[in-house]
Every structure is written in structure tokens, then in C-alpha cells.
Design goal:
This protein has 319 residues and is an alpha/beta fold. It is built from eleven helices and 14 strands. Strands 1, 2, 4, 6, 10, 11, 12, 13 and 14 form a nine-stranded mixed β-sheet that branches. The protein has a three-stranded antiparallel β-sheet with strand order 7-9-8, covered by helices on one side.
């Protein structure tokens, strides 16, 4: 099979969500889903549920609603995270049941601080054996996570004496999935607004899938190169999936669905209600486009955002 090319002659990496998940997310895989408050890859998580993946290790700094849903759907056996919660709106019912009482099955949970997770991504992306940090001194996290270890620094400490310092291991997911505002067909991916560790998470992984609100031409990317957070050479698949971050938001495209965040605590508190929700909204929809249509245009009009244009930048060039 001959690789498809875009108009510039580069490889065209676009594919439907269903094909991307089928190709890159396999049973037993370690899957990273990143996006901080903003641009959360919810639609990708839903497709993983639809395809019935099992035995996954999910790596996500801020484990939230989409992780709760994937756990409830039986996809996840291990979670690696530095925060779990429903983003200021309440609890994650399924995750709490699994961790606190192994109901209906246990969930292995490996906990780090936010900076500890960042250091894991940094080590993973740079293919380092570990990454040092000071912030675990005085913390009780090492008592619940045996992966937090101390090594002797090869350099003297501030007092001139040998220093013991905490280190964290690298994380190298089988696949990282991120959501973004736009990319070209070869995978040059641009993000603005809130950003997290998307680039580090992509570089740490064996494969990377980028889900975007828009696929744009090469000239758009080249007109504003500093917004390119993830370059094409690090991307294996580009998925066009408008509104794919709901109920989180995509800066400049749609707002956060705060009502759903508030509702989720009540939905997830009741195991049967949660399964009914998954049956109707995820397993009962063919794809994310059907999910979007089911919510209706009046609903989406309520999340519409106005313009807040960035001032143009003159990059200049030789005459």
C-alpha cells in the first residue's frame, strides 16, 4: 500500500477515529491521555470504550470524568495519576468504588505529585533512566508508592556533603492521545490557551494520535509556527473530530460544559445510573458525530464562544 501524500508531498496521516483507536490502542496497552482542564481527549476515550478494550494502564495527570467512564466500562485495570477528581464539581464515583472497596473489581492506582508526573514525562521523552526532584522531601507519598526512590547525587549538596535525592522513573506509553485545536494533514499540531504536558507526553510514547477540531492547510501552520506544540515527525495519526473534548472546552471553539461536570457526581455515584449513561451516550452511539448530534444544536449554541482574536505577529523575512 502506497502512503498517501498531502499537497506538499508529505505523508497524509489523517484517519477516522475508529481506525486510529483500532490501530494504536490494544488490550493490555499503556495509554496516555493528556490535556489540562482544556482539550481533554474525551471522544478518544469514548471510542476506546466502544471498541471494548481491556486491561489498559491509563496514564493521565488529572484523572477526571473520561477516566471514570473508561474504568466503569471495564477498560482500565491500572491508573497512573497525580490528581483524581471531578474538576471542582465533585467526586468520581466509579474510581472511588474501585480504589476504596474494590467494587466491582480492584483498580491498581499509582500516585504521584503533579511535578512528579511531569518529571516522569521528561524522563520518558528524553529516554533517561530517571529524573531527580526535591519536592518529595517530607512527603508521605513515598510510603504509598515504592517507585519513588532515593539515589546519591554525584555532586555535593548545598552544604558540601553527599546528598540523597528522590527520583522518579520514566513513563513510556505505548500510545499517547491528545486533543488540539488544529493540525495539518501530516501532523503539525497547534494549541493555544491552557496547555499542559502534551508535547512531553507525545515524545515519551511509542506512538501518538492527535485529535483536532480542524485540519488546516500547510500555509496556516507556517503563518504562525510558534503555536506548533507538537511537530509532524512525532505524530502517527491525525483524527478530525469536532467538539471531541466535550465536556471540557477547546479555546476559541466551545466553552466548558459546567452543568455536565456538576451532574457527573450524581450520575457516577449510582453504578446502575452510570452504566445506563454509558449505554445511551457512548455504547449506544456509533461515533462521536452521533454523540454530538444527539446533544443537539440548541445545546451547542449554549456553549458557543465569541471572538477574542490575537493580535497578528510580524515574523518578517528577507526582502
Amino acid at each position: 500500500m502506497t502512503d498517501r501524500k498531502d499537497t506538499t508531498g508529505r505523508k497524509d496521516k489523517t484517519m477516522p477515529m475508529k481506525a486510529a483507536i483500532a490501530s494504536f490502542v490494544h488490550d493490555g496497552a499503556t495509554v496516555c491521555l493528556e490535556g489540562f482542564t482544556h482539550l481533554i481527549p474525551t471522544a478518544a476515550g469514548h471510542e476506546i470504550i466502544r471498541q471494548g478494550r481491556r486491561g489498559l494502564t491509563v496514564v493521565r495527570m488529572t484523572a477526571d470524568i473520561v477516566v471514570d467512564q473508561m474504568i466503569a466500562a471495564g477498560c482500565v485495570t491500572r491508573l497512573v495519576s497525580s490528581f483524581v477528581g471531578n474538576s471542582s464539581a465533585g467526586s468520581l464515583g466509579e474510581l472511588r468504588r474501585r480504589v476504596e472497596s474494590a467494587d466491582p473489581a480492584p483498580l491498581a492506582f499509582e500516585e504521584y505529585s503533579h511535578y512528579g508526573m511531569i518529571c516522569r514525562y521528561l524522563a520518558g521523552s528524553q529516554r533517561l533512566p530517571f529524573y531527580p526532584l526535591r519536592s518529595y522531601g517530607g512527603s508521605d507519598l513515598p510510603s504509598v508508592n515504592s517507585e519513588l526512590r532515593k539515589v546519591t547525587s554525584p555532586y555535593p549538596g548545598p552544604d558540601g556533603e553527599p546528598e540523597q535525592i528522590y527520583v522518579v522513573p520514566p513513563v513510556n506509553p505505548d500510545v499517547t492521545i491528545i486533543h488540539a485545536q488544529r493540525a495539518d494533514r501530516s501532523g503539525n499540531t497547534q494549541i493555544w490557551g491552557l496547555t499542559g504536558v502534551q508535547a512531553e507526553a507525545v515524545y515519551a510514547a511509542d506512538k501518538a494520535v492527535v485529535v483536532v477540531e480542524e485540519i488546516v492547510g500547510d500555509e496556516v501552520i507556517r503563518s504562525d509556527p510558534n503555536r506548533t506544540l507538537v511537530p509532524a515527525h512525532a505524530v502517527d495519526a491525525v483524527v478530525h473530530c469536532p467538539r471531541g473534548a466535550h465536556p471540557s472546552f477547546a479555546q476559541g471553539y466551545y466553552d466548558r460544559d459546567n452543568a455536565f461536570y456538576r451532574a457527573w457526581s450524581h450520575i457516577s455515584k449510582d453504578p446502575q445510573r452510570l452504566q445506563d449513561w454509558l449505554d445511551e451516550w457512548v455504547r449506544g452511539t456509533a461515533d462521536h458525530a452521533e454523540y454530538v448530534d444527539k446533544l443537539g444544536e440548541e445545546f451547542w449554541a449554549g456553549l458557543a464562544v465569541g471572538e477574542a482574536l490575537s493580535e497578528p505577529v510580524n515574523y518578517g523575512r528577507r526582502l
